[in-house]
């Protein structure tokens, strides 16, 4: 749901490049720094390349991880468009294009975490999931992705209006986008709480499940399965910090108005938006998330099952608990 909607809106943003009137004064209150834009292109571009490489090499491929690779790629495109906009004339079309790419691309990062948690939880024994996860694994994606789609629509609608020359239209666009950003932040905060609660309950009620398994040491930039699922939880927690930092910044930015101090000073954008997102989401470059799913699904018995109650002599017993359709 989120991915097709995202692609359709970004298609509109791309078409906006050829639209709009030109102006000698920059839209948005400042001319973006070309050097910082190039830095953004390089950092996000390298991360996108690594993520695409991981997606291609780690088997079996999981289509849901396209949200991560496309999100990083879209951010790279956003910085390219931001660089192009920094050269006069400052057309409305160029402004809308880079603004929407950078504003909306992180929605795919949120969707990535939703689907990772859903699929990770599905590799556990049903008793563990029912006691530790407040929502069924299949419903995690449905609930939060639909929420993401709604907030995505509000942000895209409002983001386009903020560049309007009419003061009333620009103000309306800021209000709509602000509502979308607040709802998105609340939704993702609830998801973060859900994920951390799940991990806490597993450690409390199923300590044998929480403890790391004996196995090979963690290898970065590898395709081998990983058994210690806690590493993935720690990585997701770090991405949540980056995403929530960016969410708070965007709320403050839009709450201050189109011509507010935060909105018209570029340094805030890089410190509280571009950098936290890049640092947090680039963690997946080092350890591809599906390696943890493969590690769990490689077991004959789903994590948390009592071995004394399971016939290990029968191939595949318990495997259906951990199989996830993607």
From TrEMBL:
Ranges for region Disordered: 303-326
Species this protein is from: Mycena citricolor
One GO CC term, this protein: membrane
InterPro entries: RTA1 (IPR007568)
UniProt signal peptide: 1-18
Residue ranges crossing the lipid bilayer per the database entry: 34-52, 64-85, 97-122, 143-164, 176-200, 229-249, 269-289
UniProt subcellular location: Membrane
Protein name: RTA1-domain-containing protein
UniProt topology in membrane: Multi-pass membrane protein
Keywords annotated in UniProt: Membrane, Signal, Transmembrane, Transmembrane helix
Tree of life domain: Eukaryota
Major place of residence: membrane
């Amino acid at each position: 749901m989120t991915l097709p909607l995202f692609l359709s809106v970004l298609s509109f943003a791309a078409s906006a490049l050829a639209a709009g009137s030109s102006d000698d004064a920059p839209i948005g209150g400042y001319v973006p720094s070309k050097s910082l834009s190039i830095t953004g292109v390089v950092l996000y571009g390298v991360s996108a390349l690594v993520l695409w490489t991981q997606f291609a090499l780690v088997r079996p491929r999981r289509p849901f991880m396209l949200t991560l690779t496309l999100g990083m790629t879209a951010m790279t495109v956003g910085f390219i468009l931001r660089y192009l906009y920094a050269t006069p004339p400052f057309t409305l079309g160029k402004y809308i294009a880079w603004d929407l790419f950078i504003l909306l691309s992180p929605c795919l990062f949120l969707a990535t975490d939703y689907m990772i948690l859903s699929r990770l939880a599905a590799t556990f024994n049903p008793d563990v999931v029912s006691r530790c996860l407040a929502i069924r694994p299949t419903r995690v994606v449905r609930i939060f992705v639909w929420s993401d789609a709604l907030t995505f629509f509000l942000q895209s609608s409002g983001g386009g209006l903020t560049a309007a020359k009419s003061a009333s239209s620009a103000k309306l666009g800021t209000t709509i986008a602000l509502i979308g950003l607040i709802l998105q932040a609340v939704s993702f905060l609830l998801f973060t709480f859900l994920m951390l609660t799940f991990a806490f309950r597993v450690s409390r009620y199923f300590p044998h499940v929480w403890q790391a398994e004996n196995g090979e040491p963690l290898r970065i930039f590898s395709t081998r399965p990983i058994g210690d699922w806690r590493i993935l939880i720690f990585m997701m927690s770090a991405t949540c910090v980056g995403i929530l930092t960016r969410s708070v910044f965007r709320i403050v930015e839009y709450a201050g108005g189109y011509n507010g101090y935060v909105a018209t000073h570029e340094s805030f954008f890089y410190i509280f938006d571009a950098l936290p997102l890049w640092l947090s989401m680039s963690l997946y470059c080092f350890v591809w998330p599906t390696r943890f799913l493969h590690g769990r699904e490689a077991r004959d018995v789903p994590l948390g099952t009592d071995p004394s109650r399971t016939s290990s002599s029968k191939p595949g017993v318990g495997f259906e608990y951990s199989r996830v359709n993607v």
